[in-house]
Structure formats: structure tokens, C-alpha cells
Specification:
The chain is of the alpha/beta class. 35% of the residues lie in helices and 27% in strands. It is built from six helices and seven strands; from the N terminus they run βαβαββαββαβαα. Strands 1, 2, 3, 4, 5, 6 and 7 form a seven-stranded mixed beta sheet that branches. Strand 1, helix 1 and strand 2 form a beta-alpha-beta unit. Helix 3 packs across helix 4. The mean pLDDT is 94.
């Protein structure tokens, strides 16, 4: 069996290597916009399925394709990756001193079927000064991350606590991915 990760994310690659030692990385560009009336939790599952589907169509029947998508949700509003530094500052300012949810959707495509789910972790940020936020944004770390922070990198210093799975916040719920792979293989 051929395992494929449909993501360029080094964080997802590292997390998947906890489950599968030998896998390929193949990605396809997909439109990542969501309808405004869809909840972020449903949206990440939809995008995870879409990303994997694009790769699975060409990978072949005996390939197991794993894909994922992560969004930060603050009061029902999704926060994806920042467009620029000003957008990153805006996002982090809005998260300062508040709790928010991180949703990670995972999809496993295997033999023409899709197995998918969503993991959610609540993250609590401490109050942050504007100087702290600007300094963090200038580091470049938040620019490729949902909600403009990485819990596993510089953004972790803003986190007071979290309720749920740490891996979900990083970008791939290892426990859910393992379960979905088992479901696909045993179907």
C-alpha cells in the first residue's frame, strides 16, 4: 500500500511520521474559500476532503491519501492564514485575552471512499501587549499559520492553557488520523 500526505506542511509531516514511517507528499492546488454560511468546523472537514480528493483522483486505488485543514474560530468567525503583517497583527490582537477554538479536519481517501472527521481544541490566550504582537509578527512565524500563530513555535508563549488535543492545534490530530486510517483499511 502506498501512503500519501496531501500537504506541504512540515508540521503535518512530522505528526504523520508518528503513525506512518514511509509516506510520500503529493499536493494539488485547490480553492480554499468557504461559503459565508458554513461553520468553521464544517468548513475544515470540507476543505480536508477537497484537498485529499484532488490527490486521490490521480494516485490510484491502492493509495491511501491523508489530507487536513485547520482553522481558528473566534466567536463563530474563521481566522485562516494572515494575508500580510497587518492582518496578522489584527488577528492576534483579536485573540488577546480570549478563548478560541482550533478546528482541524482530517480526511482519508482509500479505494474510492472517504473517511473524515474534525477535532476541536479550545485555546486560551493571555493578554498580549501591542509590542509583543508586533515583535512576534516581525519574526515571520505567524505568516503561514491559521489564526496567525503556531502553538509549537513562537506563538506558544501567548497560550495560558488549552482544553483538548495539542496536535489538533499544530495541524493534524494524530489520534483521529490513526482512527480514520484504521477505519479505511478495515472497511
Amino acid at each position: 500500500m502506498r501512503y500519501i500526505l496531501a500537504s506541504k506542511s512540515p508540521r503535518r509531516r512530522e505528526l504523520l511520521s508518528e503513525i506512518i514511517k514511509d509516506f510520500e507528499i503529493i499536493t494539488k492546488e485547490v480553492e480554499e474559500s468557504l461559503p459565508s454560511d458554513i461553520h468553521p468546523r464544517e468548513g475544515v472537514e470540507l476543505l480536508a476532503v477537497k484537498k485529499g480528493e484532488a490527490v486521490a483522483e490521480e494516485a490510484g486505488e491502492d493509495s491511501l491519501v491523508i489530507s487536513s485543514d485547520t482553522l481558528v474560530e473566534l466567536d463563530g468567525v474563521p481566522l485562516g492564514k494572515p494575508k500580510d503583517e497587518n492582518d496578522a497583527v489584527r488577528m492576534l490582537t483579536s485573540l488577546s485575552g480570549k478563548a478560541h477554538n482550533v478546528h482541524t479536519g482530517v480526511a482519508v481517501h482509500y479505494r474510492g471512499k472517504v473517511f473524515s472527521g474534525v477535532a476541536t481544541t479550545a485555546v486560551y490566550f493571555r493578554e498580549m501587549s501591542r509590542d509583543e504582537i508586533v515583535e512576534y509578527v516581525k519574526s515571520g512565524d505567524p505568516m503561514d499559520k491559521a489564526g496567525a500563530y503556531g502553538i509549537q513555535s513562537g506563538g506558544g508563549k501567548f497560550v495560558e492553557k488549552y482544553d483538548g488535543d495539542y496536535d489538533t492545534v499544530v495541524g493534524l490530530s494524530v489520534s483521529m488520523t490513526r482512527r480514520l486510517i484504521d477505519e479505511a483499511k478495515n472497511d
